[in-house]
Amino acid sequence: MTKQTTSNHRYAASFSLVGSALIILFFALVNLFSGARFPWAIYPIFAVLWWPMGVILGRKPKALSVAGSLAIIALLFLTNYLTTPGTPWFLYPTFAVLWWPLALFFGARGAKPFSVIGFLLLSGFAGIVNEITTPGILWFHYVVFAASLWPLGVFLGNPKTQKAFSVLGALYIFAFCTADNLIHLPGTLWVLFTVYPLILWPVCVFAGEKVCKAPYAAVLAGVGILYYALLNGFLFTGFPWALCTAYALLWWPLGAAFAGRGQSLAFAVCGAGLSAAFFIWLNFATTPQVIWAVYPIFALLWWPLAIYYFVYKP
Q1: Residue of 187, 221, 224, 220 whose CA lies nearest to 206
Q2: Are 281 and 243 in contact (CB under 8 A)?
Q3: For each of the chain's 314 residues, which pLDDT tens digit applies?
Q4: Is 35 left (phi over 0), alpha (psi -120 to 50) or beta?
Q5: What are phi and psi of 85, to 5 degrees?
Q6: Alpha-carbon torsion (108, 110, 115, 116), positive or negative
Q7: DSSP-assigned letters across all residues of 183-228
């Protein structure tokens, strides 16, 4: 930076400080002598402060982020205190504002330190909000659990450690769900519903591209269908909801067999037939007195019809 540039910057900084001071004084006096009960001058003063901050700290983005964040938080706190002091709502936008300096200070250093700092910020914010808003109900640990997957994925999500990440991640999620189930709802073991998808995660990672082939997809989908059928038959009896999971899982081998091989017409015919059968069963299992399955079936028929005439017979 040349001497002339430095001198010009000093003049600009001095002018911005003096000019902003005059404007702030003007608004403060108008607010005072107009008889207003509410100190509305804080809002134009907040806007004016960005002039000297931009001039002085414009070439220092980190310093500007800190000063700007402090100014925004101060305005939010004053507004909260002056309007609704009994409800500390300023914490919510403050949490969002803090990501500005956080990203500048730690974002450039790499994903790992940024993920750790971000996880700590999310966890601390959730704990504070939990204590202030609902101290009798503990819920912030759900946020901590979800946020912890961020640094875990950053540290172990690379190609060399993705297999270990899938195993450790599945065990970690299952342990958390099991503890939450046994603490809050021990009479209903809903955690058993998570077993199949959690096991499927490392299985798919270890199998790689093989899961896109029809035989592997059929076996893995069959295991899931059988697992949920056993849950439906022995633990969660009553309505045969396992047919719903079977319908969803059957799309996996169906897509691997036809959609991935360019057989769009066969995929459309089989998919429409599977969906029609599912809607017919659902209709008679839930509301047999009202025949409503014809409506989605009518819409489904346009799928293979459009494929035949616009792909095979253009």
Answers
A1: 220
A2: yes
A3: 566 666 777 888 899 999 999 999 999 999 999 888 899 999 999 999 999 999 998 888 999 999 999 999 999 999 999 999 888 899 899 999 999 998 888 876 778 888 999 999 999 999 999 998 888 899 999 999 999 999 999 998 888 899 999 999 999 999 999 999 999 999 999 999 999 999 999 999 999 888 888 899 999 999 999 999 999 999 999 999 999 999 999 999 999 988 767 788 999 999 999 999 999 999 999 999 999 999 999 999 999 999 988 887 76
A4: left
A5: -65, -20
A6: negative
A7: HH-TTS-GGGGGHHHHHHHHHHHHHGGGGGSHHHHHHHHHHHHHHH
Please count the other Cβ atoms lying within 10 Å of the Cβ belonging to residue 242: 18
3-state secondary structure of 173: helix
232 Cβ contact list (under 8 Å, min separation 6): 240, 241, 242
Q: Are 185 and 164 in contact (CB under 8 A)?
A: no
Are the beta carbons of 205 and 163 closer than 8 angstroms?
yes
Q: Which amino acid is at 188?
A: T
